[in-house]
Amino acid sequence: MTWPQAAIVLLGVLHALAAYAYFSSKRFALPWALGWLAIAATAAWALPRAPGWAATAFAVAVLGWTAWWVSLRALPRRHWVAENARQATGSVSAGTAMLRDVRDFHWRSSKEFDERWDSDVRVELDALEAVDLFVCTWGDPRIAHLIVSFVVRGAPAIAFSIETRREVDESWSAFAGFMKAFELIIIAARERDVVHVRTNVRRETVHRYRLATTPAMRARLLQQYVHEMNALARRPRYYNTLFANCTTEVARIVRASGRRLPWAWPLVASGLVPRYFHRRGLIDDARPFEAIVAEADIGERARAETAGDDGSGYSDRIRS
Fold it and tell me: How far is residue 33 from each of residues 36, 40, 58, 144, measured CA to CA in Å?
C-alpha cells in the first residue's frame, strides 16, 4: 500500500468513527460508519488505476462532510423530550432572584410522570443557607452526574442540573456526546424532581456533600447560574462529553463566582470531584474524606417513602 492509499484509509477510518459517534444518538451509527469505510476502501483501491478520479471523489466526500459539520448550529427549538422542554431563565434585582420555568415533575417511573413547571420562583439572596453537591453514579464510580442545590430558608431548595438536551428521537450515547449531537441545558428544578428521579426511580447511588461557602459566595454562585441560564437561552451551545458537561460547566460556574479551582484530572473523571473538592477546601477538610463519604449516601433515606407521600418532605428526609 502506498502512502497516499494509507492516508485515504486513515482519513476514512477517522470519518467513520466521527460518523458513528454523531449518529449513535439516533441509532444510524453503523450504516454511516460502514459507508465511510466503503468510500475510503473504494478510493484507495481505485487510486493506482484512476488517480485523478479517485482522489477527487474522496476529496469531495471529505469536503462535503466538513462543510455540513461546520454548518451545524445548536438551536433553541426542537422536538425536545418533555423533561427538557424548557430552558430555565431568571433575573436578579435588589437582592432577589426570580426564576422562571423551574421544573417540578412528579415521577412514577422513568417514562411516566406528571409534568409541572413553576413560572415565577422568588429566592431572596440573603435567605440562601447552604449549597449542597449531589453526586450520582450508576456503575463505574469514576463516572458521575453532578447536581448543585441551594438550601433556602423558609422555602424549598432549588437544584441545578447541567445535562444533554435530547430530542424525542434521541437516546443518550457517550460517543455522540463527543460530537455535535446534543444541545446543552441547565435545568432548574425542585429536589423532589431532579434528585428524587435518580434516587428513587433510576435507583442510582447518590451522595450529598455540603459545600463550604460564605453568604457572599452563595449569592454570587446563584447569580452566576442565572447568568449562565440566560446566556444559554439566548445562544444555545452543544454538550461535549469532555469539554462542556455537568462537571466542567459546574467548575466554570464556581470559578466565575470567585472561587479558585485549578484544572485537575477529577474534572474529567467526575466521580472523583468530591475528593478533589475536599482537597481544595470546598468540602469540610477538617475531617477525613472517608468519614464524610460514609455519611453522604442518601439512598436509604431518600427511598423511605410512605403511601400518599407527595414528595414535599423529600428535601428534609435526605438531610435528616
Answer: 5, 11, 15, 29
